[in-house]
Amino acid sequence: MGFYIQIKYGGDWIPTLCALACSVMAQAQASWTQHDHGHSSLLWNPKHNRYIHMFFMGTIKGASADWWAFMHNLHHAKPNVIDKDPDCRLEPMFVVGDTNPRRRAEQNVKENAKNPYPYTIQQFLFPIGAFLLFPAFFQITTFRHIFRKKKYIDLVSMAPMYMLYFGCGYYAFGSIWKSLAYFFASRLLESAWFTWVSQCNHIVMDVHDDVDYESWFHLQLRATCNIEQSWFNDWFTGHLNFQIEHHLFPTMPRHNLYKIQPYVQSMCKKHNIKYVNKQLGEAFYDILTSLKKSGQLWQEAYDELKMSL
């Protein structure tokens, strides 16, 4: 729809803003759809899921399906486990949990950093960083993965997305620079949407070493929390507001996750395991408070270590 608006109505402000809104919503929803197929949760044949996943991840979103599968499988295997889950490797910009801040402080002191990066401000930087995850970090790492792993078929699958964005953009604006600005504006907004949703389920929870834990079930519950169900939350998060159920049953279609929630809650109650369920606004606010707490832990550890020298 966004491309149609650009071609039909040109590059004036109102059509451009309408096209941008359509593009961002379509890209966000495509993120949830590629996630479904990446988990082989919609079709019986895993091979068919992989083909459709490559289409959504490459042709629609302009990223490597192989890169996503590699990173996401690591995440599901060891959620919130330090040095195992790539989703909680946020240094040098952020430290999360209770363990990472002290280790970062020890590294700062060991390197004799006179003016170390002040993690006490990271809660203020997160809203800015959320906009940059896609156009900066993901854009670089997906291409790096393709060339390092020689996954050139992913590069071919990505080409149509860039051709559409820049072809329709140039048709509407008559300028490569305006087309580039439109592309990055879409990426910035899509990135913020995805980052707030994906992080509110995890970095606010326990981030820990790969130590002994009672069971795989306990590991998943330590690292995940849910968002209350509503029609808006289901749409906005792609049903990943049922993050606990998704981590326990990753191949289950997301529109069925709510059906097993009562059984999971019953099991947690039976075995005295904490089941965290929040309002959407509370979950977003908790990201900032957890980052503030981790930043303060880093400062306390850094000051203590410096005083002991």
Give a description of the structure.
The model has no long low-confidence stretch (mean pLDDT 88). The chain has helices at residues 2-9, 13-38, 46-60, 65-77, 99-110, 122-149, 152-173, 176-199, 216-223, 231-237, 243-248, 257-270, 280-307; strands at residues 226-227, 277-278. The N and C termini lie far apart (62 Å). The chain contains 13 helices and 2 strands, in the order αααααααααβαααβα. Strands 1-2 form a two-stranded parallel ribbon. The longest helix is centred in the middle third of the chain and has 28 residues, at 122-149. With 309 residues, it is an all-alpha fold.
Strand order of the largest sheet: 1-2
Mean pLDDT: 88
Poorly predicted runs are: none
Q: What is the total tally of β strands? A: 2
Radius of gyration: 21 Å
Count of separate DSSP helical elements: 13
- Helix share, percent: 55-70%
Largest sheet: 2 strands, parallel
Structural class: mainly alpha
Tell me the β content. Answer: under 5%
Give the N-to-C terminal Cα separation. Answer: 62 Å
Q: What coarse outline follows from CA principal-axis ratios?
A: globular
Topology order in helix (H) and strand (E) letters: HHHHHHHHHEHHHEH
